Amino acid sequence: ERAQELAGRTYDLISYLTSGPGRLPAGSLDDGDRTPVTVHRFCQASNTLGRTDAIESFLRDVAGSPVVPLPEASECCGFGGSTSVRNPELSSGILDRKLGCVDRTEASVLITDNPGCILHLRGGVHASGREVEVLHLAEYLVRRLPGATSTDQER
Predict the structure, then answer these.
(1) Helix (H, G, I), strand (E, B), or coil: what is residue 109?
(2) Domain interval for residue 147
(3) At CA 154, angle to CA 43 and CA 46, rounded to 5?
(4) Exposed (0-12), middle (13-18) or buried (19+): which is 131, by Cβ within 10 Å?
């Protein structure tokens, strides 16, 4: 009973910003930056939470960001909890496929909201010498806040 009560008051970031108490109005984070972004949807977002394009819609509507659809956006990046440690060859193959999809978008920024995916994707981008920046949704949004400085972006 207490767990259900807590669950009713708990939001993931995108739900909080789109349908929860932190709902932001359209255009409120539009700083005029038109750098193309793409979005990786972590496995549980689609499989468990039932989210489809919530982040993409939010980025377009609230932040004014040009969102390039990512092929296989909901497919695993290869991190998969212990998968990357227990089966590194499989994990690397999945990561290579995901980064190939990112390459096809020609987006400069890859956004996701899962810390494990961020670590794995950043590692793959760094190891391959790609120029795409991998950011958590919150990191990206901080950059778009009115008056944000480079110090804010580094926190």
Answers:
(1) strand
(2) 26-154
(3) 10
(4) exposed
Cα–Cα separations (whole angstroms), residue 90 to 93, 98, 115, 121, 152: 5, 12, 20, 15, 37
Q: Which residue type does 32 have?
A: G
| Continuous segment of H or E residues that includes residue 101 | helix 88-105
> How does pLDDT run across 56-75, given as a tens digit for each residue?
999 999 999 999 999 998 88
Q: 144 in a domain, yes or no?
A: yes
The answer as to whether 94 is a domain residue is yes
Question: Is 115 a domain residue?
Answer: yes
Specify the residue for token string 């998968």: 83
Q: Is residue 16 in some structural domain? A: no
- The CATH number that applies at residue 39 is 3.40.50
**How many domains, in total, are found in the chain?**
1
- pTM, whole model, 2 decimals? 0.86
What are the residues whose beta carbons fall under 8 Å from the beta carbon of 13, sequence distance 6 or more? 113, 137, 138
Contact 62, 19 (CB under 8 A): no
pLDDT score recorded for residue 15: 85
